[in-house]
Amino acid sequence: MTATSRAEGTAARQRVPAAERRDALIEAAVHEFAKGGLHGTPVDRIARRVGVAQPYVFSLFASKRELFLAAVERDFEVTAQTFSRAAAEYDPDLAAPGVDVLKAMGAAYGELVATDRDFLMLQHHAYAACDDVIIRDRVRTCYARLVAHVERLSGAEPERIDDFFRYGMWLNVAAAMGVEDLSAGCEWVRAEQDTGAPEQK
Questions:
Q1: Mean pLDDT of all residues in the chain?
Q2: Of 51, 56, 65, 41, which Cα lies nearest the Cα of 137?
Q3: Which of 17, 102, 155, 181 is the most buried (most CB within 10 A)?
Q4: What pLDDT score does 196 carry?
Q5: ∠ Cα 80 81 85 (to 5°)
């Protein structure tokens, strides 16, 4: 590579708007924080994934915490978009018997957590990081907005909304462990009970 081509390549990288770099860093942060969480993920790893230097990251985000929160907010946005898309696509005339818009949204979410493990694990890391008051407050806000979003889309009664989110958390735990069922009598739970491990007291 000549000096001229190197200079042209450098100029091309520098011409990427900061907004695009910021978006790319958030996307990279989603994947990296999903693996290592807030405290186990070096910012430099996220920077390398995008092809920028670590100091550049801190020119766009005030701290590692703020980058983590941006990734968590992106995670909640994806969930909201998944619900919106399912609600928009729902047609009562074509739906299976007993499937209303809330169940259609739940099915879409189940597919999301089953197919995007980084998305799933970042959710777990978000809740685990709530010992940090700032993170806890932001996660609470994101969660409350998501509940309101589901209420608007579905028009369901509060009791059904509660059941919807309880089942969503159930799905999260099941997907994290790589199982489809968490019920006491399901096959894998019984198999684990029969391995001869000592009972917990």
A1: 91
A2: 65
A3: 102
A4: 60
A5: 120
Give residue for tokens 């978009």: 81
- What are the residue ranges of helices labelled H in the chain? 3-14, 18-40, 43-50, 54-60, 64-89, 101-115, 117-128, 133-154, 158-177, 187-193
Ranking 2-6, 87-91, 118-122, 129-133 by mean pLDDT, the lowest is 2-6
Nearest to 45 by CA among 62, 23, 64: 64
Tokens 């907005």 sit on residue: 145
- Residue identified by tokens 């998501």 is 146
- For 20, other C-beta atoms within 10 Å of its C-beta total 9
**Distance, C-alpha 121 to centroid of its chain:** 7
Distance CA 198, CA 83 (A): 43
Say if CB 146 and CB 76 are below 8 A apart: yes
Does residue 48 contact residue 10 with C-beta atoms inside 8 Å?
A: no
Backbone angles phi, psi at 104, to 5 degrees: -65, -40
Q: Which two tokens stand for residue 133?
A: 């008051």
- CA 113 vs. chain centroid, Å, equals 8
Q: How many Å separate Cα 103 from the centre of its chain?
A: 20
Q: Pick the closest to residue 146 from 82, 71, 67 (CA basis).
A: 82
Task: Please measure the distance between the N-terminal and C-terminal CA atoms of the chain and give it in whole angstroms.
Answer: 67
d(CA 168, CA 156): 16
pLDDT(4) > 90: no
